[in-house]
Amino acid sequence: MITTRISSKGQVVLPKALRELQKWDPGTELALVPMDGGIFMHPLNPFPPSRVEDVLGSVKYKGKPKSLAEIKNAWKKMVRKRHASGRY
Q1: DSSP state letter for 12
Q2: Is pLDDT of 87 > 80?
Q3: β-pair partners for 32
Q4: Residue 18: CB partners within 8 Å, gap ≥ 6?
Q5: Backbone region of residue 22 per phi and psi (left: phi > 0; alpha: psi in -120 to 50; beta: other values)
Q6: Count of alpha carbons within 13 angstroms of residue 88, beta-carbon side
Q7: How far apart are CA 75 and CA 69, in angstroms?
Q8: Where are the beta strands (DSSP E) in the chain?
Q9: Contacts with 43 (C-beta within 8 Å, 6 or more apart), sequence order
Q10: Which of 36, 47, 82, 85 has the greatest number of C-beta atoms within 10 Å?
Q11: CA-wise closest residue to 61 among 71, 73, 50
Q12: Other C-beta atoms within 10 Å of 22: how many?
């Protein structure tokens, strides 16, 4: 069991072994969620931010670029089709 104390300023030190286990580096922001009998802590940003360069390779479309109106019409058509099939 790992223990710690609340300081007079209301601060809690998370022991190094626990921080390393969770891979929480200095500056990691944590969300605190009250639970029955305790508090659940989890990082606010569990995943690094995505960059366009990292995901651009998943876009394989080779045709003429679609206009915003064409995209909206395609979405409307898909939603109508799903509603008609009872999916929504």
Answers
A1: B
A2: no
A3: 41
A4: 2
A5: alpha
A6: 7
A7: 10
A8: 30-35, 38-43
A9: 22, 24, 28, 29, 30, 31
A10: 82
A11: 71
A12: 14
SS3 6: strand
Alpha-carbon span 34 to 57, nearest angstrom = 41
Global pTM? 0.47
Token pair of 42, please?
């989890």
3-state helix, strand, coil in the chain (%, to 5): 35, 15, 50
| Cβ proximity of 41 and 30 under 8 Å | yes
